[in-house]
Design a protein that fits this description.
Helix 1 runs parallel beside helix 2, helix 1 crosses helix 9 and helix 4 packs across helix 6. The protein is of the alpha/beta class and about 210 residues long. It starts with a strand and ends with a helix. Helix content is about 45%, strand content about 20%. The chain has a seven-stranded parallel β-sheet with strand order 3-2-4-1-5-6-7, with helices on both faces.
Amino acid sequence: MIILVGSQKGGCGKSTIATNISAALAVKGEDVMLVDADKQASSSNWFLDRSENPSLPKVHSIQKYDDVRASVIDLNERYEYVVIDAAGRDSIELRTAMIVANAIVMPIRPSQFDLDTVPRMQEIYNDARILNSNLKFKAVITMGPTNPVIHESDEAKSFFENYPDILLLKTIIRERKVYRDAINGGGLGVVEMTNSKAKKEINDLLSEVL
């Protein structure tokens, strides 16, 4: 299965989602390849830290840029799961990955600036569907406030009612320090840490994506 994590805006937690999905799959004993198609190389840096700890479940990783189609198709024949971290913009990596992916997962913060990027992503998705009619489009709210008094996440949910082609996942990835700690803690996923709420978020996300 090819899972593409991509969006039209940086800072939405794209690499956080890609790396945590990869770690969660590895913990479940799955054979996973993480493709870093973002030249900022956040996922690659996470992988390098992780590779220094041989006791962690194995995640494979590679960097691929420009037209990634052929490489991703080849990797999909050799690994059970291929997770692609594409740059947070309209890029050749994003567009070519959409042509071969089974699902695109769009992380999106519950802010108007982020929501304003959705129409453009819908257009890119429509273009990709011409060549990949089986591509599923899923969105996940990230960095959702933990304060129950703040209703930004609920407002974002209402926004997606206007986009029936995009499945907004029930899982909300909250703004939690543990996600930053996982990155800084040697290439971990939150499923390998002690925060039960973050663990549940990622496991629930993975279940919805699969």
